[in-house]
Write a structure and sequence with these properties.
heterodimer, A: alpha+beta, Four Helix Bundle (Hemerythrin (Met), subunit A), Helix Hairpins, five-stranded mixed β-sheet, 22 helices, 22 strands, 39% helix, B: 122 residues, alpha/beta, 5 strands, 45% helix, globular
Amino acid sequence: MVGFSDLKEIFFVEADELLSALESGLRAIQTGAEGGDTVNAVFRAVHSIKGGAGAFDLKALVGFAHRFETVLDDLRGGRLQPESALINALLHASDHLADMVGACRQGLETDAEADERVIVQLELQAGRLPGAEEEGFTFEPLPMDGPFSFGDLGVSTGQTFLIRFRPHASVYASGHDPALLLRDLCALGTAEVTLDMADLPQAGSFDPGQSYLGWSIALTTTSSADEVHKVFEFIDGACALEIELVDRESPPSDQSLFGASSQTTLAPSPGGSEKASLLPTPERPPLPPPAASRNLAAPSPAEVSPTAPGKGVAPASNNGPRPTIRVDIDRVDRLVDILGELVIHQAMLTEAIEQSPGFGSVEVDRSLDQLRQLSRQIQESVMAIRAQPVKPLFDRMHRIVREVSMAAGKSARLVTEGEATEVDKTIIERLADPLTHMIRNSVDHGLEVADKRISLGKPAEGEIRLSAAHRSGRIVITVQDDGAGIDREKVRQVAIDKGLISPLLELSPQEIDALLFLPGFSTASEVSNLSGRGVGMDVVRSEITGLGGRVGITSQRGQGTILTISLPLTLAVLDGMVFDVAGQTLVLPVSTIIETLRPDGSLRHSLGHSDSVLDVRGRCLPLIDVGTALGFRTSLSQGEGEIVVVVERGDEGAIALMVDGIRDQRQVVIKGLEANYGQIPGIAAATVLGDGSVALILDPNDLAAVANAIPRPPIQHAAE
Amino acid sequence: MSLRVLAVDDSLTMREMLRQTLSEAGFNVVLAEDGLDALDRLPEADPDLILTDLNMPRMDGFGLIDAVRKGEISARVPILVLTTESAATLKDKARSAGATGWITKPFDEKSLVSTIRRVTAM
């Protein structure tokens, strides 16, 4: 059984989906890309949020959503045109609604003043009188107390109503059952009911689907007239009905009652009427109409179906619209952990078997191979459970662009690509903050103001292009703006002014760009409270590296800047190449490896006293000895570093790594080091090998930096 | 013999709520997420009562009522509409579409169950 708090959580999860649909729908309307149902879908989103919020008594949310919905209804009905000012106000309201939902989720009160301001703004834009409500709307549930809960049964004091009731012939077609009304009516007090069968046709022309009957009821009850009317609430309009208060104290005599009834439309035709007292004794509690009277009435489905045998419960599988289950993320995580152990033990088993005398038999070999494939399939399936498209994350960025561009007085739009790209859920969650910051930066610092853009021959509206793609076993996310590009002279000057670098230091353009990732660096001439918010690009960088990723920046003056994040697809398992360096076992992600070779000594060229390059088919790559870079050795002995692994480093080109020997290629389980050791330059993580030993997983890009082959911590040196 | 209710709402929250409330009241509940889905489930659900939201994608509540009333299965089953508006126009519209009654959202458990009992022989 679902509990109340679970229901509430379901509501909030659903509200998030609705908010996202609302926003993307509004955006579609804004760009004119909407389909026929977009406005309806947008309306429905707000409407559903209102409905759910009402159920949980979130009054502020209900009120806001209702007024929001009213404007959307006008838009839907064509009474409003989707002009850009209106759409902007709607988007603003949608953002605000999202904030309100967020606040409610945390159990906080929303800021009533801000709520009012936003909705009034929207209403004014929509040409409505702020706060004007259509008639009859109420947030309170309608009181619909069951008829059994009141009425002093069996007591003859109270008021007497004379009710004349004749359902239209077609009443059954709407699912009504007059017998039920009589039952409910009788439950209010004591009733004397007279049946009018005057219109009952001959048996031959009798249509069981039609109603031919009328009733006169003298009801003595302590209930109010409203309560009596309430019984007929639903059927009103599908019947002829008169309710008349005839006596305040005592029930009328039969004579007076039926004398009155003879003058009404229910008047019995001569010979065709029959008087039946359904509840003749006032002392007895009222009963449902006896079977006799019900049998006279045409059978209604409501009477027949519940008693029909053999209609069991609908199958459970039919009980939910979609065959999905919601699973606690912890359970999936546990599965991932166990899977990691499985991969390790499978490697151990393989190793043990390979060293046993029985190895070499085809069956064993095939079984091992199958086991390997199976565990890989399990791994992929588990990863698929955790994988989610980046779309929701990207969708959130639209709002960031809107808010920042508005606050910065710029005009900008966000274009997203590759939204369907799937990434591990944990990565997506931890990506939100850095990505938000990068987007803010791009709008705030990257784009020029509209006037300047026009003078430069660019479109007035700046464009931020956010894209995601899978590239060689990693996910690559880029944030590209078409703004001014990095002003390297200014960046350098700022760094000097802040004492971050020495004015004497000669820096390459890439090195200057990298300055932006320095802790506490801010390029904005005046400190902007938009991109600022106490977070610098250095935090972005450390968050991304924390995910095993890298951030890169490239920029062209006047053309714009591209920030690139490259991340592992998963945080759990990777395909690794295992090799030896100076007696240590190390692992490189296979996805980064371009080739391995054993180069001739003549292909190595020294550069300066410590650096060297390798000529790979005419291309010179920085050559790094892994052992030296990681401090395992200071120089190469005979037979060491003879094998070279060429690895790629994203956009920065390949590097060549010297190792001593290659062992094999296998799946390794990534075990983070950061929790225990902090971040170690050049090392991405560790893993446990088949023989139980621990091996470090290298981060080739970082390794190059450690080896000082590319100047990534030149900055750090300079700064210290 | 418990009452079979086909509850139709595009909101997962509402569906879960209806499922919970109606099951607790001892009804058998079949859920559908819009009018078309409800029509698909109708033969098997064989409901004693249909409870439907009005504003839904693909086929809304009015469409569903119309299809049920004109259809061959359960054509005369009581249909209650769930609506957030208590405005009279909407009630009239629901009524003329062939609805048996309505329940105004947000509803409480008691009112939901008692309204269902009002239009069914339970």
